[in-house]
Amino acid sequence: MTTTTILLxxxxxxxxxxxxxxxxxxxxxxxxxxxxxxxxxxxxxRSLKPDVVVMDIAMPLLNGFxxxxxxxxxxxxxxxxxxxxxxxxxxxxxxxxxxxxxxVIKQNTGQALVHALREIAAGRxxxxxxxxxxxxxxxxxxxxxxxxxxxxxxxxxxxxxxxxQLVAEGAPNKQVAVTLGISIKTVEKHRQHLMEKLDIHDxxxxxxxxxxxxxxxxxxxxxxx
Length: 225
Description:
Radius of gyration: 18 Å
Number of domains: 2
Strand order of the largest sheet: 2-1-3-4-5-6
CATH superfamily of the largest domain: Response regulator
CATH class of the largest domain: Alpha Beta
Number of helices: 10
CATH topology of the largest domain: Rossmann fold
Oligomer: single chain
Order of helices and strands: EHEHEHEHEHEHHHHH
Helix content: 40-55%
Strand content: 5-15%
């Protein structure tokens, strides 16, 4: 039997430990890496080349949306299985657009996760039945309503998305620069571009936008004034 190698991207240690224990009960799966942030997941994928990444959405430094895009840009053969507490249509649609191969909510059983991994390992996308139905319904309604695609000028670059998350998490420019390995001046330029694209004029506004669009969870951000 072929073993499927797995990277766990989840910022809660106790959840990662539980997932690892569950998956290693069978010889089908082997956990080869664990990441506590989206940025760490991207780095580990480059070096470990896992078959599947079990990806949470709400993670520090780099959220699951952007981590998924970056991982697939570097390792296009990797398959992303989202395991999240969020089942809102917007979250599901954004992860599907980013390239996720499957989506399971944390409220499901461990056996549901194992089943999803088996399907994905066999090359078959897997979305929980209720989620798949909602995705199809939303896509049909959007086509019928003639909903326009997002304007390219408002679409954030990968670097702008990284800066947005770090700023929304409360990081000052110097910390953002160190985290991303760029100059403070470059950070300032990215912040300016963000504000221009989004028509937002202060940091609090950027933070509210990040929360509203699922870039970060409100619970991990300091009080917005």
